[in-house]
Amino acid sequence: MAAMVIDIQPSEMEQIQEKAHKLGVDAESIVHFALNDFLHKTVENESDFDAIIEYVVRKNAELYKRLA
């Protein structure tokens, strides 16, 4: 398994940890699930980077609203 280090804003990390606690899993599992979900979504034109970025922003906005 490969490892990756990413910077997460403290407020985002807090939200991830809160969600993980509610679900009874660790924060890494939440991030792994979100990444896996993103990777398995179908974008009509996979080479369309803008569409992918827009999807991520839209998806995260909903997640953050639910976590708030």
Key attributes of the depicted protein:
mainly alpha, 68 residues
Query: What is the count of β-strands?
Result: 0
The biggest sheet amounts to:
none
> What is the terminal-to-terminal distance?
32 Å
Helix content: 55-70%
Given the C-alpha coordinates, what overall shape results?
Answer: globular
Rg for CA atoms: 13 Å
Helix/strand/pairing class, anyone? mainly alpha
- Strand-residue fraction? under 5%
> How confident overall, as mean pLDDT?
80
Number of alpha- plus pi-helical segments = 3
Descriptive account of the structure:
69% of the residues lie in helices and 0% in strands. By secondary structure, it is mostly helical. Helix 1 (10-23) packs across helix 2 (27-40).
